[in-house]
C-alpha cells in the first residue's frame, strides 16, 4: 500500500501527495488549537448538510442499496465457499493445476466483486452518481457472467432458457433498480 496519512479532523485516509484531506479539505499538519476549531467547523458543515432537504425519495435509494448489499454478501460468501472447494480439491488429490488455478481465480473474482458491490451500495446510500453507474455495470456483467458460467461449466445441467430468464430477472432487476435510482437522483438533484 502506498504512503498515506489520516486526517485528524474527519479520520479519512488520504494519499501522501494530497496537500489537504479529500473529504474535509483540512491540512495534515494542523496545530492542536486550530485542530479543535476545524473539527467544530467540520461538525457544523455535516450538521448543515444533514438539515438540507432531500428531494430524492428514500425508497428510490433503499431498493438498489438492499439489492447490492445482498449481492455483496452472496458474492463474498460464494468466494469463500470456493476457497473451501479449492481446499477439498487440493486435499482430495486433484493435481491438475489448471483447475486449481481456475478455482482460485473464481474465488478471488467473487470476493473482489463482492467487495466492490458493498462499496457501490454505500455509494448509493450516500446518493453518489458513480455508484449507480457502477451498479448498472456490475448488473450487466453479472447477468452475462451467469449465463456464460452455466454454458461453459454446466452445459445441460439446467435449461439454458431457464438460466437466461432467471439471470434476466435477477440481474436485470438490479440494473433496473440502479437505473431508476440514477434517473431520480439526476432529475431531482439539488443545485450545488
Task: Describe, in plain words, how this protein is organized in 3D.
The protein has 192 residues and is mainly α. The chain has two domains: 4-51, no CATH class; 58-187. It has five helices and two strands, in the order ββααααα. The chain has helices at 32-51, 58-91, 97-125, 129-153, 160-187; strands at residues 4-6, 13-15. It has a two-stranded antiparallel ribbon. Strand 1 (4-6) and strand 2 (13-15) form a beta hairpin. Helix 2 (58-91) packs antiparallel against helix 5 (160-187), helix 3 runs antiparallel to helix 4 and helix 4 (129-153) runs antiparallel to helix 5 (160-187). The chain is flat, with a radius of gyration of 22 Å. The two termini are 34 Å apart. The mean pLDDT is 83.
Low-confidence stretches: none
- Mean pLDDT, as a whole number? 83
Major sheet characteristics: 2 strands, antiparallel
The DSSP helix count reads 5
State the total count of DSSP E strands: 2
In percent terms, what proportion of residues is strand?
Answer: under 5%
Query: What would you report as the Rg, rounded to the nearest angstrom?
Result: 22 Å
Shape: flat
The structure class reads mainly alpha
Neighbour order of strands in the largest sheet: 1-2
* Helix content estimate: over 70%
Instruction: Output the helix-strand order.
Output: EEHHHHH
**End-to-end distance:** 34 Å
- Quaternary organization: single chain
Query: How many domain units?
Result: 2
Amino acid at each position: 500500500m502506498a504512503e498515506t496519512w489520516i486526517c485528524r479532523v474527519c479520520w479519512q485516509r488520504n494519499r501522501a501527495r494530497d496537500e489537504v484531506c479529500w473529504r474535509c479539505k483540512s491540512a495534515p499538519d494542523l496545530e492542536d488549537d486550530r485542530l479543535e476549531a476545524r473539527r467544530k467547523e467540520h461538525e457544523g458543515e455535516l450538521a448543515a448538510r444533514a438539515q438540507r432537504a432531500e428531494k430524492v425519495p428514500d425508497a428510490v435509494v433503499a431498493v438498489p442499496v438492499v439489492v447490492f448489499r445482498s449481492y455483496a454478501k452472496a458474492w463474498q460468501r460464494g468466494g469463500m465457499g470456493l476457497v473451501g472447494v479449492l481446499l477439498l480439491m487440493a486435499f482430495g488429490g486433484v493435481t491438475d493445476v489448471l483447475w486449481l488455478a481456475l478455482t482460485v481465480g473464481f474465488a478471488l473474482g467473487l470476493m473482489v466483486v463482492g467487495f466492490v458491490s458493498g462499496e457501490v451500495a454505500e455509494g448509493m446510500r450516500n446518493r453518489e452518481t458513480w455508484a449507480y453507474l457502477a451498479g448498472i455495470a456490475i448488473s450487466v456483467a453479472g447477468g452475462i457472467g451467469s449465463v456464460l458460467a452455466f454454458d461453459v461449466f454446466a452445459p445441460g445441467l439446467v435449461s439454458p432458457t431457464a438460466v437466461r430468464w432467471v439471470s434476466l430477472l435477477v440481474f436485470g432487476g438490479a440494473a433496473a433498480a440502479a437505473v431508476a435510482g440514477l434517473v431520480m437522483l439526476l432529475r431531482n438533484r439539488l443545485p450545488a
